[in-house]
Amino acid sequence: MGTSWTSQKPVPDVDLTQKTVIVTGANTGIGYETAKTIAQLGAKVIVACRSEAKANEAMERMKMEHSEEKADDKKSKVEIKANDLDVEFMTLDLSSIASTMSFVEEFKAKRLPLHILVCNAGMAYGGEVKTADGFELHFQVNYLSHFLLTLHLLPVLKASRGNAKIILVSSMAYRGAGWHEDNMQSINKGQLSKYGSTKLYQIMEMFTLAEKLDGFGIGVFSLHPGFVDTDIVKRENQQVSGSMKFFVGMLSSMGLARNSFDGALTTIHAAVNPQYDGKTALYLENSQPTSLHNPLATDRDKQEFLWKYSLDCLKDYITEDTLKELTSH
């Protein structure tokens, strides 16, 4: 088709046995393909999402597809390392601070290591809605709860002893995002503005985290997965305009949308490709580092403002001991 992502690198031939990975939003779309592929490489994968029923359905499908691909390697897009997939559901509702904190405590109680955290879950076109915690819905789901999750899981990532990774799945929608210090949650702004701002924040968070975690052996990455034909604008319970639905359908019918696996490739490379071991603060598109096209993303003063604003939003859930994990070896 002549589309640029056809030149993406294949899945690296790596063995992730003894590794533990969390993938948020792993029951559908690129999260599903990310979780399945990483599990096929041998890792234990935590499928972190809201619905246990949907997660169980997704995990059963992963296992069925895995069996088929093991039996016929022509069907497989990865050098399979796992005999059986080790995938486990854990409840995580990112629209709820309580759910996010419960997830953290329950994961820590398992006393598992954590080598890779993939912050993949996201939403768009959710209307003008505030969560029960009082935050704008897109801001909390796409950015703030992942921020909280990451800070509280830092001790476990640090304990993995090198080459741990945090992956923040952003979007090229960051390119058009603006900056409004008096309205960081984009309240009463357009749906695309809300979404784009949260994706910009993820990239800005990458830079701040990478700087604060320098010397800890934790790489922080962000990326654009590409337009995927099962993209979040098509999910249920989202207020997508007729024109946007038409646009999505047109791109898909013209073959200009990636399938979910191709969309997941950039995330997979960021998470498991050994060429990124020891590296950090890289933004990827088409499975390789690329330059950023919005100067807001690299503005250090604005990065610091966002960091302080985020901590203030979560002041009841982030203690001084939590923040010490950013400075203590």
From TrEMBL:
Source organism superkingdom: Eukaryota
Record bears the keyword Oxidoreductase: yes
Keyword Transmembrane in annotation: no
InterPro entries (UniProt xref): NAD(P)-bd_dom_sf (IPR036291), SDR_fam (IPR002347)
Transmembrane spans: none
A GO molecular-function descriptor: oxidoreductase activity
Keyword annotations: Oxidoreductase
Family: Belongs to the short-chain dehydrogenases/reductases (SDR) family.
The protein's name: Uncharacterized protein
Source organism per UniProt: Strongylocentrotus purpuratus (Purple sea urchin)
